[in-house]
Prior knowledge:
single chain, alpha/beta, 2,3-Dihydroxybiphenyl 1,2-Dioxygenase, domain 1, 2 domains, 2 helices, four-stranded mixed sheet
Amino acid sequence: MDANTKGLLPMALDAAVLECQDAVALSDFYIRLLGWKKNYGESDEWIDIVSPSNGVKIAFQRNEDYLPPIWPDEPGMQQQMAHLDFAVRNKEQMELAVRHAISCGAARSGVQYDPEKWTTMIDPAGHPFCFVIW
């Protein structure tokens, strides 16, 4: 039984959206990091970028009251709601990706849980993201 037979509308994920105080700066960071291109952005309120295959979008929404999450989580502090994982093939690519991310403005998290399989980074707006060996 598919979604149509259950009376549901067909849907697809449009974009993962990251809130931040500066959508222009954060979208520019991810453009440098990933080599993706700006897809839409008529103002500094909302910008999205798209993968080279046009299959994946990340959007950035300005929120003047945005507070970055605390990583790792601490009771009573702002928690992360989601994070992005980017696949790399091996340990050598992981180190290249980490160095590239740092050169783009990211920081390596002070806490790493399994550095043989993934590395947690922090983007300029404070969102954690990971490089994962798949």
